[in-house]
Amino acid sequence: MALQWMILTYVVGAEAVIALLLTLPSPKAIKSTIVSFVSLILQPALFIVPFAGFQLLDIYWKNEHRLMCNSEICTSSERDRYEKTIYKAQRNVILCAAAILLYWSVYRICKYYKEIQSLEAVEKRK
Hints:
Blueprint: H1 2-23, H2 28-42, H3 48-64, H4 76-125
């Protein structure tokens, strides 16, 4: 079960690096090369949105069907295990949200840069 979270962690890290590369100032030729390469990667990388959404649904389902441990019947180790699972679920929700948000950010940055390039081309023709 931990493999899916490792994959999601690596994807979020890669998306963060790509977003950083896209927002750093660089010469026009390098920037256009980076944007065209990232644009080619964006369509196959769209799998991350439904994958993260499915993981969010899985977290929600597990949260709804989790045994509650908040009475005096629970031992301290059971209470610690319960709190640990709650913290893990919260971390994983943040990871899923970051994956979706970073994908959207990279997509919008590439789209804005392409629009700027097309507007510059129209202005150059005039």
